[in-house]
Amino acid sequence: MSVDPVTSAQERALRHVEALSSGDPLEPRLRVTLNFHPDRLVGDRAAPRFGSAHFRLTAETLRRTTFCYPDSFCEPSAFGVASRMALIELAEADDPDLLDDYIEAQVHGPVRLDRDVEALVLDPGYRGTAVEDAARRLPCPVEWHAGFRLTVERLRRHPDYRGQEYVALGAEIAVDGLLDPRIIGDAARTGHYDLQALKKVWHCLARFGSPQHPTRR
Length: 217
Description:
- It holds the Pfam family DUF3626.
- This is DUF3626 domain-containing protein.
- The chain contains 8 helices and 9 strands.
- By secondary structure, the protein is α+β, with helices and mostly antiparallel strands.
């Protein structure tokens, strides 16, 4: 009987990380989220550094997910799996910037929208747009989080966060003195702005944007 090499690789990875992990089991109510920019498919509010939208995955995906803290870019030595998760306490004891306040998750194996996703959670700025139209055609529910909104007035109070040049850029692309994810996405698609610079504007919006009241539908 042949062995599925993909499944075997997943199992080896999970066993390896489990051996490096410690702590109590993860609370069943918690979920893995995958963040992205819905109108710019690159790389809640879960880990907003990576985008204004996220897929919230099902509880079943936890059994094939490994975790690390901090981000793998930092070459961490602390790991977790659903059955052994000490990373939450570790993260809560830390004091990172709000955009770095997350535990990285690695889901092993495919993520299918019709099977593994509880909901696609969007910023309300995309209501009534082509993004919502496309989202409604997906085989998963659509929800709306509280929303990222930042006035130019408030943006100008934080020139030291990413730099004055990004404050100026944010003010330039703002519409009626306001920034939201859709406005930044529109600016990106014009091709007139450096995408890395717009990413810094997004960081300012995600860090200082005032949330609206959450809604679901």
